[in-house]
Amino acid sequence: MKPENLRTKIFLDSGDPAETKETMAFLGFLDGQTTNPSLIAKNPETAGKKFTREELLGFYRGVVEEVSRVIPEGSVSIEVYADKHTSAEEMLRQGREMFAWIPNAHIKYPTTREGLKAAQQSVKEGMRVNMTLVFSQQQAAAVYAATRGAKRGNVFLSPFIGRLDDRGENGMDLIENILKMYQKGDGHVEVLTASVRNLHHLLAAVQLGSDILTSPLKVLREWAQAGLPAREDFYKPEALTPILYEELNLEQDWTAFDISHELTDVGVERFSADWNALLS
């Protein structure tokens, strides 16, 4: 059962419906699930197989349909294919198609110039979006500005904390900074802490008040085995460089913000490579 004092929504980060069912069994609840091309590539059913583009999209659709049946009241994030050449129009075309797959979809777009253009139009059309591969406060400000006018629940923002930790920066500082910045706004963007690597990350996200977090099954299992605690007072990674808060004006146009980040570029390349590796 979900602890009464837990305000953060808990998502599973997985491309395998079997893990959805397993998590529901040991956790007793699940508020949603995030998927991406790399997670779909790790699905046991793809092992050693090659697909046509249509077959792979059909497989992806089958995965999220099964997940949706397990958690019909939760959100299921589906990611468009995007590489460095993919236009906003192409992302939007995919997004419209994927949004129709299930009734509880959020469409994941990369937080790039083209991804933000696609997201801006998507929310105008009433679609729900999840802006992914976020690594900076400037990117978070741009997402807020690009989706202004959307109702709460329709826009998620996914900062990847583990990948910042990997290069010596304190990813949890980014979560804290974005939450602080968004307090000045209208609340239409929900912060979804992603790239959670361990129980310390999970508990720190809960304690900071992240709206949502998404975690791999192994970390959720560790959390369950620990009794589903909602606090951690000893997460102070002194070996990591602090990320300082920036004073940004959320009322600016989204194009005024510097959304470039090398980790976003690397992430886009990695997701597209994992997807393309499955194609015949």
TrEMBL record:
Top-rank taxon, per record: Bacteria
Keywords: Schiff base
The name this protein goes by in its record: Transaldolase
GO biological processes: carbohydrate metabolic process
